[in-house]
Design brief:
Layout (H helix, E strand, L loop, with lengths): L7 H12 L4 E5 L5 E4 L1 H7 L3 H5 L26 E9 L5 E12 L5 E10 L1 H22 L4 E6 L4 E4 L1 H7 L3 H4 L9 E4 L12 H8 L3 E10 L5 E11 L9 E8 L1 H47 L4 H25 L3 E2 L2 E4 H18 L2 E6 L6 E4 L1 H18 L4 E11 L2 E8 L6 H6 L15 H11 L3 E7 L3 E9 L10 E2 L1
Parallel strand pairs: 14-16
Antiparallel strand pairs: 1-2, 1-5, 3-4, 4-5, 6-7, 6-11, 8-9, 9-10, 10-11, 12-20, 13-15, 16-17, 17-19, 18-19
Helix pairs in contact: 8-9, 10-11, 11-13
Amino acid sequence: MGKFVYNQQEIALLVDAFEFAAVGMAIVSLDGHWLKVNHSLCRMFGYTDDEILTSNLLPINYPGDSVNGNGFAQTGPSYSTQVEKCYIRKNGQKFWVLCNTALIRNKSNSPVFFMIQMQDITEQKQAEEHQQPDEVKLRNLLKDLPWGSMLLNEEGMVLHANRMACDIFKLTSEQFSGISIGTYPLIFFREDGTYIPPEQHPVAVTLCTGEPVCDQIMGFSLRSTEQTRWLLVNAHHIEGWLIHKNKQVMVSIVDITQRKENEDLLRKSERLSAIAELGAGVAHEIRNPLTTIKGFIQLLQATSSATPEYLEIMLGELERIEVIISEFAVLARPHAVVFIRKNLQTVLQDSFSFVRRLAAQHNVQITTKIPISAPDIYCEEHQLKQAFVNIMKNAIEAMIDGGTLFVEVVRPDSGNVLMRFIDHGCGISAEVVCRVGEPFFTTKEHGTGLGLMVSQKVIQDHGGTLELKSRPGRGTTIEITLPVYRAESKLKDKHL
């Protein structure tokens, strides 16, 4: 092995580096006596260098310090150690030091002395001692909560997740530790099926705005499986005095998968009940025209002649059966439809074209007040047009002596658009208004009682509302409210 040779200038640099280092430096003998100390170490202990060099380390160890002896490495094979030790300054003040010790050997590999580096860590230790009880209390509090609970830092990284949270997400505490909302092994989505990107996660929203996110329902599935579960999530901003001195978010998570499944079963049960009710009505409504058709066919068989008047009656009854079955199918069977972005004015104008001929036959003029800046909506175009046509057809047929059908569009707020369909027909009483929408209830001679029911269902499936206002002799107003299109509110293909 080569022999190191230092010139005088290099030796002077080494001495200066030792003497004027910002941290405490010392050379200690193998039996624990100070051989050389620098200025920083003297200031740290509050002694002069002569006082330290003439004393032993043990008298200034803090009583009760768990480290035995001087805490330095012995002359065994260990080359270096690092230990936190507690000492007492000359003025009696307790302080903590991070000691890095290296055993120095000569060229014969025999131990010669210890080189010590000491850094005052008193403030850090005091902060830890102050924070630990609060942190322990917090973790104990969260541990046995009957719902999932997570604490995340300002970067969206999980600091702590309790046992229930681990059970809900099927992750261990080790898997949770250190992951952030952008690296979750999970896929989150809304009730409508749209994906929730990391920046729209409740944690990110609360961190960004400082505002809580309350009772948000969201689903998730593990990236490794297709299992879907539903959560009720609350996120609240808290000051970071508990674990770290920065912004944090406390998230509570309740697994509502069973509740969602029960709600789906209830909806299916209600749907089956409604279908049974509709089925009874359909059977009744279809039986009458079928009886008529059967009677005329038997009459034709008896007379061996096809009277045009009889054929016209049978054709009309068959058309009535077709209308009833078509409208019943809309209510009773889900249809795979695709929602797309459409301008409301375009949808309305297309709907007007379907009823203009009927309006002309009833001497009804259609007047509109639709702003050029009518908003876009997210809709299944054909079903929405059918709903508008049903409403306008009812309004036109209600004006027996002709009149004006007024259609206007207004924006009551930034998130919705309101449409009014106003006629000046005969109007209906409050008692009848209460029954509007019931299957097969109609005030028209040739009505099916399904048209408005279909329209209500279509509007509800679009996230809107339909309200009917009427007074006898004064006409009827139907108000429809629909949500306007927003990029973040897009729906996936859904079954209606």
